[in-house]
Every structure is written in structure tokens, then in C-alpha cells.
UniProtKB/TrEMBL annotation:
<protein>
    <submittedName>
        <fullName>Unconventional myosin-XV</fullName>
    </submittedName>
</protein>
<comment type="similarity">
    <text>Belongs to the TRAFAC class myosin-kinesin ATPase superfamily. Myosin family.</text>
</comment>
<dbReference type="Pfam" id="PF00784">
    <property type="entry name" value="MyTH4"/>
</dbReference>
<dbReference type="InterPro" id="IPR000299">
    <property type="entry name" value="FERM_domain"/>
</dbReference>
<keyword id="KW-0963">Cytoplasm</keyword>
<dbReference type="Pfam" id="PF00373">
    <property type="entry name" value="FERM_M"/>
</dbReference>
<dbReference type="GO" id="GO:0005856">
    <property type="term" value="C:cytoskeleton"/>
</dbReference>
<dbReference type="InterPro" id="IPR035963">
    <property type="entry name" value="FERM_2"/>
</dbReference>
<feature type="domain" description="MyTH4">
    <location>
        <begin position="58"/>
        <end position="211"/>
    </location>
</feature>
<feature type="domain" description="FERM">
    <location>
        <begin position="217"/>
        <end position="515"/>
    </location>
</feature>
<dbReference type="InterPro" id="IPR038185">
    <property type="entry name" value="MyTH4_dom_sf"/>
</dbReference>
<keyword id="KW-0009">Actin-binding</keyword>
<dbReference type="InterPro" id="IPR000857">
    <property type="entry name" value="MyTH4_dom"/>
</dbReference>
<dbReference type="GO" id="GO:0003779">
    <property type="term" value="F:actin binding"/>
</dbReference>
<keyword id="KW-0677">Repeat</keyword>
<dbReference type="GO" id="GO:0005737">
    <property type="term" value="C:cytoplasm"/>
</dbReference>
<dbReference type="InterPro" id="IPR051567">
    <property type="entry name" value="Unconventional_Myosin_ATPase"/>
</dbReference>
Length: 515
């Protein structure tokens, strides 16, 4: 796997809808349909125009040859077979024994996935069958298929302006029953062009929902601090759209700040940060075993606390990271003082605890697991009691804000940390922690917190994930960095190899956009 994002095509102009009366499907049929070219050789102009119009209109009779010219006879056969499947799905022909609508759709999508050269043929077949079709039910089915086609497969550069024009004309006719779905198809095609389309074909349950008219799926996003965000996502929703929606709801509507958040797909203990242009449905399984969570990944934009959800989300994330030992700091007398202050602030966050001192059990809950063995419970209790005597209590919201501001001053705040068992560089003592932030990758000694290695992200040339060397072994990451004159390679073994790899990919993606 390489982290270098594939360059977007330089054919942006293709997505511009042509003006005027050019680029209609009739123009395309005249130039490229097999039958139109035969007719031009045989007939006069007026008859030819009428016949060409017939070629791009609904037919009750299966086609005997592909609409487009193919030199390969197999392509011609597949096109004829596909047209029959399309007619069965749209209700223009009776289905085969034991064949249902979902199977018809699958057959068509699978053909497109396997044979890219048939994309244009399939587009032309569906467009033909929804044009001047007397049956509303049949038309609706054809448009439903177009909805899927536009999100999964692009037409060729030749057909693109004609298909785009067709969708624009269909969506600008408010009297038609399908102008809304035509608008969705336009949006799908644009996203497909920019982001590359969905990778995995839909699950049967998703197609069944679409056939019943349910174009959106319920999704609960788990936010830090135990907040659940309930939303509905469509067939081709990408991560950046959902991120924007959530961030606006919590008062972080500026693009620069939205860029600093990431959605994560989690299944069992596997965590996969999503790039902003990835399709959510590619990560959501049929069985709903995947959880989607939100996390702040980059800390460049100043925080602001006018929105309660925003404050709760940031407090929840920092508290979780702090207590799990993900924010590193080494044992010292100064560290004991910090732990005391942060324990007091956590205590004040609980409304009912405003005027009481925390019990020893509560203090243990307020202390990072990694530090509990270093700190004397009695010393911590004395310190917190003294702090409580000398400071007036804060309201919960103010205690949360102070906690956030305090944690942000810790030396390794802002790094996403991973526990690494083995490293190829023997100057790095292991086990250790590797931290990744918006600028660099660092190796930190777990006990002393001494930084033994720094790799600036701008020096990272390439990286890939590595499979475990043996059964029961750990996966790894190989990093290639340095300059062309002095290239360096390092590999590390850690259970969270894929998560770390994809976190770096997302950070690079987001910081490139920032520049």
C-alpha cells in the first residue's frame, strides 16, 4: 500500500455541462451507435433523424446487437444479455425462474465491475429504456439503476458530456416524476469523478431498501464523551459530507477546523481512520458490527467553547486519552502536581461533587492507569485536599474548559500515540511509543519520555504495511524517509500497524489540503 494520493484527473472540463442543444443523446447515437451508422449509409436525412430518435427511446423488444460497435464478439454477446437482464429488472420482460430484482441489479453491476469497456454500453441501454417509456413503474426502476451506475462507474470521456447533459435536462424538468433522482445522479457522477466511486458493490439489504424507496440508512456516530449523533446517510455519502454535518452541529463550521477532525470505522479492535473522500458505505457492513466514531486528529485551529457539545466532545476525547495513558509524560514531582490538578478538575465536572472531597477510589479513577503504580494514593489525596481548600470550586462546564486547557500544555499533547514492540533501528530502546502529529513522527521512551528519533512528515517518501512474520506475530509498518541523497528505511512492529498507517495517510491528506 502506498500513501501517495492518486492525482485527480486533469479532465475537469469533462464535468462541465455543455451549453445549448449540442451533446444530446441523439447526437451521441448518430455519431456512435452501430445502427445509426448503418442507417446513414442507407437512408435520406429526414427518415434518418426519425430513426435515430427511435434508437435512444424505450423498446419493448430486446436488442439483437450491442448499441455500440464492438470488434470483440464476446462484448456484443454480453451487451445483448445485459439488455435482457435490464428489461427483466424494469418489468419489460418476465424474470427467469427463481430470479429476483436484486439479482438482476447485481448482474448488471457485476458486469460493469468486470468489463470497463461495457460502461458506455450499459449507460446507453439504461438511458434508452427510461426515455419515452410509457410505464411509470418501469421508468422509476431504470432511474434507480442509473442512481447506482452513476455512483459506481464512470462513462468514458467520450460519453461523459452527453450523459451529463442528459441528467441535466432530466433534472431541470420539474413536471417529470424523476427530476429529483436525476439531481442525485448528477451529484453521484460529480463525486465519482472527483473521488473515484464506491469500491464495494452494495449488500442485498441496501438494494432492497432502495427498491422500497428508502434512499438513506440510519447511522449512529459515537462521539467522545459518550455522546451519540444520530444521522441518515445516503448510498454515496462520503466522509467529508458527514464530517461537515457533525461539525456544523457542534459549532465548528469553518472549513479549516472541519479538516482537523476524522471519522473512524471500528470493528472488534481494528480501527480505520477514513480519508475525507472515502465512501462511508464501503466501511459499513451489512451486520452493523462496524461502529463509526469521531475524533479530533489535528490541533492547529484555536479552540472555542461557546457550544456545549463542542466542549463535551473535546473534554471527552482528552479525558479518555489522558486516562488511557495516550498522552505521555514521565514520572516526576511536577507530574504529581499536574495529576492532582487534573483530578480536582475531573471531580468538579461532576455536578453533585461540587462541595465534597474525592474518595480514594474516585482519585484512582481520575489517575492515568500508567501512573497509578508510581503515585502514592495518600500523597495524591493530601495534594487534592489542599487544592480544594485553596481554590473556589468551578462550575462543571468551566472545569471541563480548564481541564482541556491544562492538558493542551502537556509536552506530548497533540500526538497520536502507538505502543511499539520492535524497531529495526537499534538506537531506539524498545518497547517504546511512537507519536504522530501534523508535523512529525517521534519515538519516545515509555519510562523516561526521552525522544530518541524524529522523522519530519515532509521527509516521508513512502510507507507500507507489513504482514506478521510468523503466526501470532505482530504486523508492522515500513517507513522510507530522508532525502534522495541520503535515503533511510525503518520498520516497526505494533498491533495497531494499520491504524497508524492510515492515521499518517489522513494527516498527510489533510495537511496537504491546508497548504
Amino acid at each position: 500500500q502506498s500513501f501517495v494520493p492518486s492525482p485527480t484527473s486533469d479532465h475537469d472540463s469533462i464535468m462541465l455541462v455543455p451549453a445549448g442543444d449540442h451533446y444530446t443523446m441523439m447526437d451521441f447515437a448518430t455519431a456512435y451507435f452501430r445502427e445509426a451508422q448503418s442507417m446513414q449509409r442507407l437512408k435520406g436525412m429526414s427518415a434518418e433523424k426519425k430513426s435515430t430518435a427511435d434508437l435512444v427511446q424505450h423498446t419493448k423488444v430486446p436488442i439483437q446487437e450491442s448499441l455500440l460497435q464492438y470488434s470483440d464478439s464476446e462484448m456484443n454477446e454480453l451487451a445483448i444479455k445485459n439488455f435482457k437482464t435490464l428489461m427483466r429488472f424494469m418489468g419489460d420482460q418476465s424474470k427467469l425462474k427463481n430470479q429476483n430484482e436484486v439479482e438482476c441489479i447485481y448482474e448488471i453491476l457485476q458486469l460493469c465491475k468486470e468489463k470497463e469497456s461495457l460502461h458506455d454500453e450499459v449507460y446507453c441501454q439504461v438511458i434508452k429504456q427510461v426515455t419515452r417509456n410509457p410505464s411509470q413503474e418501469s421508468v422509476l426502476r431504470g432511474w434507480l439503476l442509473l442512481n447506482l451506475l452513476t455512483g459506481y462507474f464512470l462513462p468514458s470521456n467520450i460519453l461523459m458530456p452527453y450523459a451529463t447533459k442528459f441528467l441535466q435536462l432530466a433534472s431541470s424538468d420539474p413536471s417529470s416524476t424523476h427530476h429529483d433522482i436525476a439531481k442525485i445522479c448528477q451529484s453521484n457522477l460529480r463525486k465519482n469523478f472527483l473521488y473515484g466511486g464506491r469500491r464495494h458493490l452494495p449488500f442485498p439489504v441496501e438494494i432492497e431498501a432502495l427498491l422500497k424507496g428508502h434512499g438513506a440508512r440510519r447511522l449512529v456516530v459515537l462521539m467522545p464523551g459518550g455522546i451519540e449523533y444520530l444521522t441518515r446517510i445516503k448510498t454515496f455519502t462520503v466522509a467529508k459530507e458527514l464530517l461537515q454535518e457533525i461539525c456544523e452541529q457542534m459549532g465548528a463550521g469553518e472549513q479549516e477546523e472541519i479538516q482537523e477532525f476524522v471519522l473512524l470505522a471500528m470493528k472488534n479492535k481494528m480501527v480505520r481512520p477514513l480519508r475525507s473522500e472515502e465512501y462511508l458505505h464501503d466501511y459499513l457492513l451489512e451486520d452493523e458490527l462496524v461502529t463509526v466514531t469521531l475524533r479530533r486528529l489535528i490541533w492547529r485551529t484555536p479552540l472555542h467553547f461557546e457550544n456545549k457539545i463542542y466542549t463535551d466532545v473535546h473534554y471527552g476525547q482528552m479525558l479518555g486519552d489522558y486516562l488511557k495513558g495516550r498522552i505521555l509524560f514521565s514520572y516526576s514531582k511536577e507530574m504529581e502536581m499536574q495529576v492532582g490538578i487534573l483530578a480536582m478538575l475531573q471531580h468538579w465536572v461532576k455536578t453533585e461533587q461540587q462541595n465534597s472531597a474525592p474518595s480514594r477510589e474516585e482519585l484512582k479513577e481520575y489517575t492515568p492507569k500508567t501512573l497509578q503504580s508510581f503515585i502514592s494514593p495518600q500523597a495524591l489525596q493530601d495534594r487534592v485536599d489542599m487544592l480544594l481548600r485553596t481554590r473556589p470550586p468551578l462550575q462543571p462546564v468551566d472545569a471541563k474548559i480548564q481541564f482541556i486547557e491544562h492538558v493542551m500544555k502537556l509536552p506530548f499533547f497533540g500526538y497520536n500515540t502507538y505502543f511499539v514492540k520492535r524497531v529495526s533501528d537499534d538506537t531506539i530502546p524498545v518497547p517504546c511509543f511512537f507519536g504522530v502529529n501534523k508535523e512529525e513522527i517521534i519515538a519516545v521512551d515509555g519510562t523516561t519520555q526521552v525522544v530518541s528519533c524524529v522523522i519530519p512528515l515532509k521527509e516521508l517518501q513512502k510507507m507500507r504495511t507489513l504482514r506478521p512474520l510468523s503466526d501470532g506475530g505482530l504486523p508492522g509498518i515500513e517507513l522510507n524517509y530522508g532525502s534522495a541523497a541520503s535515503p533511510k528505511t525503518m520498520w516497526l512492529e505494533l498491533s495497531q500497524a494499520k491504524e497508524m498507517y492510515h492515521t499518517i495517510v489522513v494527516i498527510l491528506d489533510k495537511t496537504e489540503l491546508h497548504h
